[in-house]
Amino acid sequence: MSAVRPARTRPADLPGLGRKLFEGARGLLPGVGALEAEIRERLHETPLRLNEYGYDPYGFHPEAARPWLLLAGLAYRYWFRVETHGIEQVPPGGVLLVANHAGQVGYDGIMLALALVLDAEPPRICRGMSEYALWHVPGVGTTLSRTGTVVGTPENCVEMLEAGECVMVFPEGADGANKPFRQRYRLQPFGMGFLRIALETRAPVVPVGIVGSEEQQPGLANLKGVARSLGLPSLPITVTFPWLGPLGIALALPVKYHIHFGAPLHFEGEPNEEDAVVEAKVRAVKRAVADLLDRGRRARRSLFF
């Protein structure tokens, strides 16, 4: 099995958009210098296996990632004002973080990844997995690889877990991310693939409840029929899209994020067990995520605090 391998290019050869945004943020926002220094130090503390060109086995490059991590860090600290709860329960070594998915745009995954960089001890890179089609978009695949994302195949996930990596999984998929606002915090069906991978690799599963993402971009409807005709997984209509054009896709309300980490779950069995057996284990994970969401919603004071 082989994960996505980096091309042998140096940071200066990578797309420069992240660095341009980084320089713009430095000039406009207070506290950018301190956050930049913090991210640099946290990356220095992160255990990484880098080759002579500065890449890890999956394409992550600390220097190329740093401008993007700064931009995400600004959202983490000042827009979503993320608080983590129980992050010390994430064990070292290969681990699957299994979280609820919501908010139309994948800010929940970005904030979860930043939590492991900024608030975990020691800091670590949490690997995300994306559709292979994104690697055909000029510049996008390279940027994803350099910031810690790989193509979302079971083989890549198994390899990373066996190598001791932290991998985030959203078993609801697009049905969770693009559900209408009236269904917020109602978990959609979980896929079973992550549990079979956990059984194959003997990796612990840490349930994660992300409170706040469900309100960041309220969805009014999801035009699935139109989406299918366009070859898209979904076509959500939100309070900002299509009314504000392309900006409406990315715009999120400044809701406060609370990310709750549960105790690791360990499962015994074989990855090729009958669906009914695996489904029972999946339900246990889903219940754990639901419990974290219920606890987090009761504890928060409002959407913005």
Mean pLDDT, nearest integer?
A: 88
Beta-strand percentage range: 5-15%
Helix fraction, binned, reads 25-40%
- Terminus-to-terminus distance: 45 Å
Largest sheet report: 7 strands, mixed
Beta strands, count = 9
Q: What class do helices, strands and sheet pairing give?
A: alpha/beta
What is the element string, with H for helices and E for strands? HHHEEHEHEHEHHEEHEHEH
Total number of helices? 11
User: Roughly how many Å is the radius of gyration?
Assistant: 19 Å
Which regions contain 5 or more consecutive residues with pLDDT less than 50?
1-15
Please tell me about this protein's structure:
- The protein is α/β, with parallel strands linked by helices and about 300 residues long.
- About 40% of the residues lie in helices and about 10% in strands.
- The protein is built from eleven helices and nine strands.
- The strands form two sheets. It has a seven-stranded mixed sheet with strand order 1-9-6-2-5-3-4, with helices on both faces.
- Helix 2 (about 30-45) crosses helix 3.
- The longest helix is centred in the C-terminal third of the chain and has 25 residues, at about 275-300.
- The radius of gyration is 19 Å and the shape is globular.
- Residues about 1-15 have low confidence and may be disordered.
